[in-house]
Every structure is written in C-alpha cells, then in structure tokens.
Amino acid sequence: MTSLPAREFDYSLTRMAEVDSLRLIKFEKNRYSMPVNLVGKTVTVKGYPFQVKVYYHSQEVAIPPRTYLADQTCLVLEHYLPVLVQKPRSLANAAPLRRASLPPGLYELKERLLDRGEDRELARILGLVMVHGIEEVEKAIKLALQSGQNSFQAVRYYLGQQDNAGTNQVQLDTAFPMVAAVNLEAYDSLLGGGVH
Questions:
Q1: Residue 39 burial (CB < 10 Å; 0-12/13-18/19+)?
Q2: Alpha-carbon distance 136 to 108, whole Å?
Q3: Taking Cα atoms as reference points, which of 126, 117, 161 lies closest to residue 140?
Q4: Which of 28, 38, 40, 121 is the most exposed place for a label (fewest CB within 10 A)?
C-alpha cells in the first residue's frame, strides 16, 4: 500500500497555442474564441473530455465547451463584446453574435432590433452585458419584453429596478409614513355655512 499522490493527476491533453487576429486558438482541429486582450499571445490549452481550459501566465482565461466534430468554431459572445460595442454597424453580420448561444430574451431582442435597423441600440444593450453580466441583463430584458418595450432605456430601467429591489423592500417594510387624523367637523361647519 503506497500513499496517495500529493496532487491530482492531470489527465488533460496539453498544447501551446497562439491567439490569432480573429481572437481564436486552434486545438485538435477546432477553433475556440479567446478574450480580446490575448491577441498575439501564446496560451496553454488543456483539453478535458467535456471542456477546454485555457491559461495565460498560469491564470485561467477561458473555459469553452469541448467539441469533437472537425473544423468547428466555438465562439463565446463575451470575448467579442468590447469590439462589437464599438462597431455597432457590424452587428447584423457579426459571426460571434450569430453563432453564440444567446439566452432567449437577448436573442429575441437582438432579432427585433436588427430587423428595425437599430444596431446602435443593440450595441448599447451589449455594453450593459459588459458591466452587469449576461444573467442580470437577461432578467432585465425579459421584464422589458413582457411590458412590450424593446429599447436600451427599458433594459437599463429594469436593471436599476433589480439593483434597488432589495433596498426598496427594506425601506417599505421598516418605514411607514405617519398620517395625522383630520378634524372633519371644521369642514362640515364650512359646508353648512357656519363660521369656524
């Protein structure tokens, strides 16, 4: 009986890859998107059965799902947001926006805005994703769509409502306004023609 190893055995298939100008790395006949700040840099790619972990200077920078079909490109929308927000006219044809698996609310809003040619409005909403994260923006988009609104202002409003929901609830629960009783006899005497 020997003692267990000090650390877990790393069973990944490990390779080095360079991030190209399209923000992609190649690993096992497929391409995976990387954050925009890694263009031209060499990263360490570790292929596991269900995901690919990418490291730059020993820091994990991306974990896309692994694909086994040949010549596939796995794009993560968040990797392209800084560029998409700055170039709203490219949104209608942007592969990261077309190929990325978007949450249902964001997908529906994207389709509506692009059908109306409102690419700048969509770019502003994608900017909110960079600040608040895709989950929070998706919640706000669903609320906006439920109320029949398809705009950046509506999404931003509902994001603000989510941020203030906890504080407003506390204020409502703890601070009820005090209303003094009104003496209605004086009003009745005025209506009756009497002088008060």
A1: middle
A2: 16
A3: 161
A4: 40
* Alpha carbon distance 151, 148 (integer Å): 10
The 52-56 sheet, strands edge to edge: 13-18, 42-47, 52-56, 59-62
Q: How far apart are CA 78 and CA 84, in angstroms?
A: 10
Cα–Cα distance between 21 and 191 in angstroms, integer? 83
Integer Cα distance of 13 and 72 in angstroms: 18
Please give the angle made by the CA atoms of 50, 55 and 60, to the nearest 5 degrees: 80
> Does residue 194 surpass a pLDDT of 80?
no
Q: Which two tokens stand for residue 174?
A: 């703890």
The C-alpha atoms of residue 195 and residue 164 are separated, in whole angstroms, by 50
Output the pLDDT for position 27: 95
Q: Cβ–Cβ contacts within 10 Å for residue 127, how many?
A: 19
Give kind and range of the element (H or E) at residue 130: helix 119-132
Strand partners, 53: 46
Quickly tell me which residue has 């923000």 as its tokens: 23
For 65-124, the pLDDT digits (tens) are 999 999 999 988 888 899 889 998 989 888 888 887 788 999 999 999 999 999 999 999
Distance of CA 104 to the CA centre of its chain: 12
Query: For residue 169, is pLDDT > 90?
Result: no
Indicate if the alpha-carbon torsion angle 184, 186, 188, 191 is positive or negative. negative
pTM of the model: 0.67
